[in-house]
Amino acid sequence: MFNMIVRRLILFIPMWIAVSVLSFVIVHATPGDPAAGFVGQDTGAEGLAIARARLGLDRPYVEQLSLWVAGSLTGDLGNSYFLGRSVADAIIERLPVTFSLGLLALLVAIVVGVPLGVIAALSPNSWKDASTIGVSLTFLSVPEFVVGMLLIYLLGVEWRLFPIGRYEPLSDGLLPWLHHLALPALALGLSQSALLARMTRASLLQVLEADFIRTARAKGLPERVVIGKHAFRNAIITIITIIGLSLALLLSGAFITETLFQLPGIGSLGVQAVLRRDYPVIQGLLLVASSFVLIVNMLVDVVYRLLNPMIDND
To answer: Which of 247, 255, 241, 144 is CA-nearest to residue 202?
Structure first.
């Protein structure tokens, strides 16, 4: 286990460099001039040249890329064009909000999705199965911002059960934190719960048709033991995979939800950066989001080993 974690951490270095290069290339390939956004569209050529020099955009492309990659390897993500501070500090300041939202949304997805998938798998082709498939298809087909707007209108505006547009840190108390994050976590987590329910159903149905399940039932084992100890334990590997992917997607894909609910997380920071063409912030956020995915994948592999030591992650 220790050797596997060390090897994965070593692999992070070339992956980090590749992601750094890719994020730089993607951002600089987009149309638009950040200098024009910095000094205004009506500024003349001389003013734009001064702004480009001040932002470091007049340097050769390769030199800018080299400086960015070298800085990212040491944790220096540069300075924002518009925030007047380091990108790393701006991201670290907003990470607790995004982590809170992502983890709470994942909890919603697990609490709703896994039981629904189990119920559907234990009653195939029944009304329970059809209802689960219908609900999951609905949430999968409806964009998250539409679910968020419905929740805002019903639970925030009409019934006034939850506040809108505010964030309370966990240090101010668990209940205020939950109260303010409930709606965005529901909006973000329900679509993932639908995916989790469908994958749980499919995985459990496949295991229930295996020979060892028929053997367990033939031995007269109680159904709760057959399902809980034998079937679900073997289906959990697929479920853990989906949960890991969902966590990475929730943490790196909260841009729209944070903007919709006006949460001061890295998602809203990313939207502002894109609108302003703040290259260092966009590159830093792409790097952080990619790092989330790499770390979560490693954690999933660790959980695989803990659940089944016979699995070879190498």
So the answer is: 241
* pTM for the model: 0.84
CB 117 within 8 A of CB 204: yes
Cα distance between residue 112 and residue 67, in whole Å: 46
Q: What is the pLDDT of residue 177?
A: 92
**Residue 38 confidence (pLDDT) above 80:** no
- 3-class DSSP state for residue 86? strand
CB atoms within 10 A of CB 209: 10
DSSP for 203-260 reads HHHHHHTSHHHHHHHHTT--HHHIIIIIIHHHHHHHHHHHHHHHHHHHHHS-HHHHHH
Residue 56's φ and ψ, nearest 5 degrees, are 80, 15
Q: Quick one: angle between helices 279-307 and 2-29, nearest 10?
A: 150
Rounded Cα distance between 180 and 174, Å, is 10
